[in-house]
Each structure stands twice: as C-alpha cells, then as structure tokens.
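Quick one - inputs below.
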Amino acid sequence: MTTSPVELLPAGADVPFTRIGEAMARGVCQERGATPMRALVATVVAVGPIERLSGAAEALQSLGDAGTVRGILISDGTNPAPPARVAGNTVALPGLKSQYVNNAVAALRLSSLPTLVWWRGGRPEMLAELAELADRTVLDDPEPETIWARATTLFEDSTFSDLRWARLTQWRALMAQFFDIPEVQAAASTFTRLTIVGSDRMSARLFAAWLRSSVAFPDGFADEYVDRAGKTPLEEVRLSDHEQELVIRVAAHGSCIETAVAVKGHRSASRVVLMTDQSLTGLITDELRIRARDLAFERALRRLVAQPLPTS
Amino acid sequence: MTGNPLHDGLRLEPTPGPTTFVIFGASGDLTKRKLLPAIYRLARRGRLPAEFAVIGIARSQMDDNAFRTQFFDCLKEFAGVAAAGDEVAQSLANRMYYVAGETDDPALYQTLQQRLAAIDGAEGVLYYLAIPPTVYSTVIEHLGASGLADAPPRGSRRIIVEKPFGTDLDTARALNRLAHQHFDEDQVYRIDHYLGKETVQNLLIFRFGNGMFEPVWNRRYIDHVQITAAETVGVEHRASYYEGAGALRDMVQNHLMQVLSLIAMEPPIAFTAESVRDRKMDALLAVQPLVSTDGDSPPDTRNVVRAQYRAGWVNGVEVPAYREEKGVNPQSTIETYAAVRVNLDNWRWAGVPFYLRTGKRLPKRTTEIAIQFRRPPLEIFRRAGQTSVSANLLIVNVQPDEGISLRFETKLPGARMQIAPVMMSFRYGTTFGGEVPEAYETLLLDAMLGDPTLFARHDFVEASWALINPVLDVWRAQTGDISTYEAGEWGSAEADDFIAQDGRRWRSL
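Output:
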C-alpha cells in the first residue's frame, strides 16, 4: 500500500521545494485558507515509510492548525528535491533521498525552537543522523527491537523517548503512586510475580523492564505476559505474592483505569481515574512538553535490550 | 528503601496523602458550581489519592444517596458530565457522605467526628467554609472546641476560608484572631480564586523566568499599569451579600490587590510560599493611602471613583438598574463600579500609577492587566510627517481567553515610512493543547498538598483592608446620591475624568 502526498495532506497545495518556506509562512491551505500564526513551540519531523506517515500527518496537521507546531513529513526515497505539498503549517516531502534529509530539516525547521524527530520506522542507519539534528527523538516503530538496540548506543549523545513509553506513562504513574505508600514499599521485597496482560508484548516488556530496573525485587521474581486483544497496549498489570497484590487494570467501559491495593498493614483501597489521551496528537503534545533526558527510559530500554526474550 | 524510585523521570505532579474533604455549605451554590466539579476533574486526572472522601455538611435534610444525586446533578449542569456510565463519577460518589445539621449545634461536630473516624483518608482533613461569612466564626469555634482542628501525628487538619475575609479591617482582624486560636497560620488557607488562574500564576514565570522583562519592569520604562476586572452580569442571586459589600469590597480589596502585588513585587529569593508572600506583602506595604487627610480639611478622595449602574442593554439584552434588581434597596448607594489610582512609594514604582477598575453590567466580561510602556524619548518619525507612535503595551489576559499579548509598532509595507501597531499574542488555549485547569482545581489541590503559595496570608488581608477601610469610611459619611452609568457602558463619566486628569485614558477593551 502506498500513500501519495495528496493523501497525506489533502487540503494542501503543491509547491516547488525551494518555495516551501515562503508557502508555510503564508500558511497555504486550499480548503481552510491561511492558517493563523500563533505562538509557535516546536518543529516536529515525522520520518518513516510513507504508509506510516498518514497517522502522523493527521496529528501534525491538528497541531499545525492550532498554529503551534511546524510539521515536516519525510519518507525515505531517491529524490533529492521531491515535489513538496504544504498545508498550513505542515509540509510533506515524500521520497526524499536519505542523504538530503538533514539539509531539508535544517532548512525548514523553526529557528531557536526545539526540534522533535518522530521516528515511525525506516532504515536503522538513519537514526543517528536524525537524532543528531533533533533536540529529542521519539521512537514509534511497529517492530522496535532493532531500533531500540540502536538507540541505546546513542543515549550519551542524544535524547530519546518512545511512544510506547509515552503510552505507559499513566500506568507507570499509577504504579509509582502505589509505592508512595510506606507499606507497599516495605512489601517490595516480598513480591514474587509481575503479570502483565495486554495486546502489545513490547509495551509489556518495556513496563516490566522499567519496574525491574527501578525496584529491587527478591531472587526468583518472575515476569509473566498474557496476550489479550484489546484497545490498549496493556489491559492489566498485577504485582503480587501469595497474599498481597497491587492491580492496575482497564475498567469495564474501557475509558478509565482502576487501581486496587491490598498489602499487609494498609487498608485495601481502590480508585478509578480517566485514561489519559492516547491519540497520536495527544501523545506528541505531551512529548513536546518534555525537555529533559529521560534516564528512567534509558535504564528500562538498556535492561530490555540486554535481557533475552521471555516465554509466555 | 528511601524515596520512591518509580517517580524518577515521571514528571509526576504530586498527589496528596489520604484526605477527607469536608464541605460546610454542601447544598449551596459554590459547592454545586465550583467545588464538586473541581473535585471530579481532579479525580479524572488522577490527582486525588486513593484514600479520598467527601463529607458534605448543610442544614438541608439529605442522606448520603441524596447528596450523591446532587453531585451527579451538578456535574451534569456545571461540568457537562452525564454520570451514567462515567466510572470516575461513580467511583467518587461511592466515597461521598452527608451530615445534616446546624452549624451552631455541638452535636453536628460529634457526628462529624464519628463519620471521620469511620472513613479511610481521615488522616488528612480539609475543611471548606462555603457558607455565609457570618457563620465562619461559629464553625471555627466549634471545630476548635471539639478537637477537630487538631492534627494527628501522621496527618493534617487544614481549613479553607472563602472570601470575604471580614467586611472591614476590624472584622478581618477578629476573624484572623479567632482562626489563630484554633488553627496555626499554616493550617489556614484563605482562597482567592484569581490566584488559581493559570495566567496569574504565569506572572511569576513571565517576570522571573525570563531575562528580558525584569530589566524594563520599573518606573524608567513603564508609564502606568491598568488592571481591569469587568463583568457583564449584575448581582444575580447575591443581592443581599452585595448590598453589604459593593465593588470595592467584593473585587478590589482581594482580587485586584492580589494581582497588583504580583505585578509590583520584587523578585523573591526562592519560589517558596513564604518568600513569594513576603515580597507580595512588601509591595502592598508600599501602597500609599488611598485617602489622604490634612488637618481639618475634608478627606482627599481623588484616588477613588465609584458609580452604580442604571438600566441599559448588555449583550443585546435589556437589563434593569441596580436599584431595580431583586433584593436591592431601591435607594441603595452601593457602588457597582469602582476605579482606584494606586501609587507605590518605592524605588521601582515611584511615579507610576496603577489604575484598578472593576464593575458589573459592563459591556464585556474580561479581566486583564495592561502594562503601558513609555514612548520613545525622541519621536523621529513624527518629524517625517508621521502620526505619533503608540506606546508599547504588554497585556496579560486573565480571563476569559488566558494569554499574553505584546503590542509594538511596525512599518507598513511600501515605499513610505508608514507606521502601524501590531499585536503578537500567546494563548494558553491553543499553544499547549490539553485542558487548562480551573482555578478551583488548582487551589483545592494545593490546599490538600499543604502548599499555601497561592493563598492569602493573614497580614496581606489585613494590610489590604487597611488601605480600603478609609475609603469605605468616607463613602459611608457621604450623604449625596451616587454617580451612575448606563448598563452596557464602561463606567461613569467621572471614571473617565478621573484618569484623564493624569493625561491618560482607559484602554478600550
């Protein structure tokens, strides 16, 4: 399946490569007219196979329509100056020859504001150069193992995150809140099992790697993964021993997350919170708020890359 | 294990410890419109602890279930949330309880004590006085007498007091004295919802997180400051309160003085509650008396103007005069509009007037701070036949469209040197995406967390009343009728003259 530049930015206008900057400054957009320029916050460069850029295009256009982000969509190809299509604050450069990606990004990104590279797949050897251009690289690869392994070699030079990691933020936050309870901290040395149910094994492994890289569990502690189709990467996380447990799970209607704690010396308690925005736009918006290097992510990814694949 | 290693890198906003939120005035308007929707939004965003409960207290005879129904109703009416199928609302409702009683009945407090003992989360108790100010002292005394103000070793007891904090300096002092008999100052949270607004908090970041503004934030570069809080509504259902208050008490003494102090304060040495509040207090102490007296001469009230609205049209709707509103004395001389000129005697602000204005039934609902800079010292373009350039203007929009705008001059395209002002704008609503928290959400959470930065300290409240009190005394002594303005206009002619005397005019909003 291929996606054309017109499909990526249906409301846009084709412009010569050399006129992209001018067209974006005018806010060219066939259907909506000129996009009002407001307080800009960043450039987001989405890179990947063209069929993976559709979702990114929608998210970037949404952010661009709000007038805050300049979006650049680039798919790998052989053309040094491909026909560009501009819609408002977003430009698509399909089939750009990889050795010219740096030049294109350097020419088009907003000066003096952060650049975020959104990696949606592609040749792993491109990652280092792209990461060098970016203030932050957000990985979002359907088959992430290779790119994760490569990213761990770049941690000292570049700042990385991952959309799977971003989707786990609320789950990690809820688990962290359990550990604010002194009795839960005390129970950490007795938990024996982490069970994760979900539809995305890599997300489950990343969560487990994070937890195990942060908390010293006893010898013999085991991870267990249960595949179950669902709308969210994780459906349930359970940290337990034979008489205590912490549970985080998607609640019945699927829009909330329910937590429950049952540990010695502490009253059993549960609560329900709304699931945070998991849309691409929402996740990228959250990523744009982050500036600092994420050492917890780096530790988790290093651990995951170093450990053998678990069995179900 | 020390600390919580799972917080590393999470950028988690803190969650309070176990808390029970006790609302006095649980069947009232504030509870329905603001408090319960704010609690719901906090729960949605996962900002409340697992051990959280609400106890509503009011005279109305209700049981827990009826209170929960009221919660669902107010969510529907004021937050646009249908409770059916909303798991957060259902979960929260399960932890809502109700106690009916009279606030002057000791039995009420015994019942409250029993309820607290039976509820998870009673380690931390946050009382909220959403009741008429006349009852504050009764509740505070009973809380103190029944031991409900005493924090257990691993918990807290805090109290949020709604404005008005007194009706004048004497009553404010008396209220503070009473509160301090039963609660320490760090247990008392005097809420001013203006301080919970994102833009008002952003004033600190804007001023002290940027290197370029603070150097020009002084008398050398700033000509004057206008702070406007305009409402289109009349007194609505608050006539009995408003008849005893008026615009000066209702808005200037609290909200506008708080905003003024944030604009005028010196940089704090740290972003801590006491440091910020100390510097705000310094700014307030630099304010010169609003009424000056000189021997036997009549008090000089040239720094204040008041007026009351007549019938008129607002937003296309014909509205009655203030004196014709339900519950208002037909001969009332209460002001629905007030304008104040504030001068600060310190090195930063000497000679820079701050103009504060607030009113009801004005043409537009808006709250903004406008900082007008001085014009360039030499108008070289005027000599080239151009009209005078506009002064640069920095506008902080507090509501409804929170953001910051900067107006500056620019050359119009073309061969001639034509000048036109342009406005560069930043808006919270569009720039960062996501929901901007409501002021009450921010402030309730801060109180649960024990962070008093955004709450008024006792000395600030008293200093503010000390400024306002002489004005009220003069107005009270005046026998003539009050000036008026037509509803839907920007105040009275006197208000325009008042600022025109200084060679300035109100910003058109």
